[in-house]
């Protein structure tokens, strides 16, 4: 099955949003509903680099991690067969990533209030950007900083507050064109 895509973007589906928005779980559920392959960008980066996101941040800094992320994103979006891609929360910080996503994917912003995100991520263990302070405060700041990029990139926005993974996946799947057999 493939997504028959007539609008902006390309054949892939990319989920963007802050950590805790549900990108990984929703991506897997949407892929199953649409009979597509699901890829998680952070998992791809850690697999390619042989180190966790936290270790990459520690060894290379955020910029080094973003270089790895950008290379993995370009590889995924060059695939011919459509995929559902769960991105990292900061993927839109770089212009080439925004441009590539715009050209090659339908972008869905999974949006949630910072307090919802903080509840979902808990103490932030394993999330390097949350180690700098109180997760709720960091997520509020990230929401202000990244919100405009998410909004500009999004073909669709789904508010995930008070929704289950299945409800969000159903909403995302309903926003997509009907699949056609290739």
Could you explain how this protein is built, in words?
The chain is α/β, with parallel strands linked by helices. Helix content is 52%, strand content 15%. The chain has helices at residues 23-34, 41-49, 53-77, 95-104, 114-121, 135-153, 165-175, and strands spanning 2-3, 12-16, 37-40, 83-86, 105-111, 156-159, 179-180. It has a five-stranded parallel beta sheet with strand order 3-4-2-5-6, with helices on both faces. The longest helix is centred in the middle third of the chain and has 25 residues, at 53-77. It is globular and about 45 Å long.
Give the tags:
182 residues; alpha/beta; disordered N terminus
Layout of helices and strands, plus pairs?
Blueprint: E1 2-3, E2 12-16, H1 23-34, E3 37-40, H2 41-49, H3 53-77, E4 83-86, H4 95-104, E5 105-111, H5 114-121, H6 135-153, E6 156-159, H7 165-175, E7 179-180
Helix pairs in contact: 1-7, 2-3, 3-4, 5-6
């Amino acid at each position: 099955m493939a997504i028959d895509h007539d609008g902006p973007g390309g054949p892939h589906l990319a989920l963007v949003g802050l950590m805790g928005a549900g990108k990984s779980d929703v991506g897997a559920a949407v892929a199953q509903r649409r009979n597509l392959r699901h890829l998680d960008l952070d998992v791809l980066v850690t697999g390619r680099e042989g180190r966790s996101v936290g270790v990459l941040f520690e060894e290379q800094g955020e910029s080094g991690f973003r270089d790895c992320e950008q290379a993995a994103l370009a590889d995924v979006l060059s695939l011919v067969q459509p995929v559902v891609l769960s991105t990292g929360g900061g993927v839109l910080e770089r212009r080439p990533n925004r441009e590539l996503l715009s050209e090659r994917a339908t972008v869905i912003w999974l949006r949630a209030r910072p307090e919802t995100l903080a509840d979902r991520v808990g103490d932030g263990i394993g999330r390097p950007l949350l180690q700098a302070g109180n997760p709720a405060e960091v997520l509020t700041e990230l929401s202000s900083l990244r919100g405009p990029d998410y909004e500009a990139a999004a073909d669709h926005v789904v508010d995930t507050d008070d929704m289950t993974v299945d409800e969000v996946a159903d909403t995302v799947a309903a926003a997509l064109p009907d699949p056609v057999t290739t």
